[in-house]
Amino acid sequence: MNLSTLLVARASAGRPVRVGLIGAGKFGSMVLAQAQRIEGLHVVAVADLDVGRARASLARVGWPAERYAATSMGDAVKSGRTFVTEDAGALSTCDEIECIIEATGHPIAGIRHALQAIDARKHVVMVNVEADVLCGPLLAERARRQGVVYSMAYGDQPAIICELVDWARSCGFELTSAGKGMNFEPRYRYSTPDTVWGFFGWSEEEVRKGDFNPKMYNSFTDGTKAAIEMAAVANGTGLDCPDDGLAFPPTGLHDLARVFRPVSDGGRLPRSGLVDIAASQEPDGREVFNNIRYGVFVTFKATSEYTKACFKQYGLLTDPSGWYGSMWRPFHMIGLETSVSVLSAVLRNEPTGCSKEFRGDAVATAKRDLKAGEMLDGEGGYAVWANAIPASKSLALGALPIGLAHNVKLKRPVARDRVVSVDDVELTSDLDVVALRRQMEDTTRQATTSKAA
């Protein structure tokens, strides 16, 4: 990798890489924390509906006030400072900005922001995995037609998993599975914003001191975020989500190759080629020894007796047979690493992971018995969790994607743990995004029919 060298060359030529950031929450704050330290990377503007919050985020991560005191984007470009605004659309109209980082976490807004940026021929780094799972393959195709890059955000787990998948395939190994670690127990599935901090293990004092959103962290806890991320990995790698959703088998590093291999060879996977989660907790709450809670992994199979022997000779952790091995990265640092995606897009015209097809979906599933007339409150809320299933199954069920499950009314009851269908709800708003999603679904159905013929 030579991104820093390329950046130095650009900076030396007086051509800094100019970026716009939409969303100054936790992820955006982490991006900003490092961006000020990277010579040649200029954050021209930060857009957030709450300008006060954006300024507070800049101050929290150590930006001197004079660095974000630009009076306009034109002033920011000329002075090398940063403009803070509530107008996200304005970032796409700034000719000097080359790349937009979308970090709002709001799927509807994220899709609209991405479309604006792509149509303005700007690269998009989509931190917003919720938006990516909802319509990512269409956004990626639109970006290709416009000659720009649509990319997952490096530092977040989906992009790093995609990197490991690419590594395994580039080495010629037979890829078996890919996934990430996570603190999960079955009872977490029904967590709400009221109970999440107890499950997360943080005190009220720690929560008060941090910039933590209870719905966002509840989506981590109840498995929704895992479903969204694994569906994104499926769409970016050609792997599949399990037919019945993620199984979350408790697994330590030493057992990745043993557990994440097919049942036919003694593992826990129904078959090869799946994504799943290595839980860091046993169902009874005991912590898994040597767990990979903050990391990502792939498992793969040797293609010959010679390769199998090399696995042993070079100390690879394998299953008992010696045929299956694993490779992992123990940590991810989300926004602190996202500049890698920006520089890859601008300097090399390459994404760090990208949705290629609609292969996996994250579908809304009832967290409790829901009654007709109730309002769904989306990811991390009180009403639904997301399950990661194959897109083919989602289409057959007419499932409601989790990205469209916010502020919609149920027309009929849905029992706990049942998938909510599009026919169960009233979709009366955000019809532009609903239409885009249906376009992606129709395109996938047509492609499937053509293959079958």
Automatic annotation (TrEMBL):
Signal peptide: none annotated. InterPro entries: DRL_cat, NAD(P)-bd_dom_sf, SAF. Coiled coil: none annotated. The keyword Ribosomal protein does not apply. Keywords: Cell projection, Cilium, Flagellum. Residues 361-426 form the SAF domain. Gene3D superfamilies: NAD(P)-binding Rossmann-like Domain (3.40.50.720). This is Flagellar biosynthesis protein FlgA. It comes from Methylobacterium currus. The lineage of its organism: Bacteria, Pseudomonadati, Pseudomonadota, Alphaproteobacteria, Hyphomicrobiales.
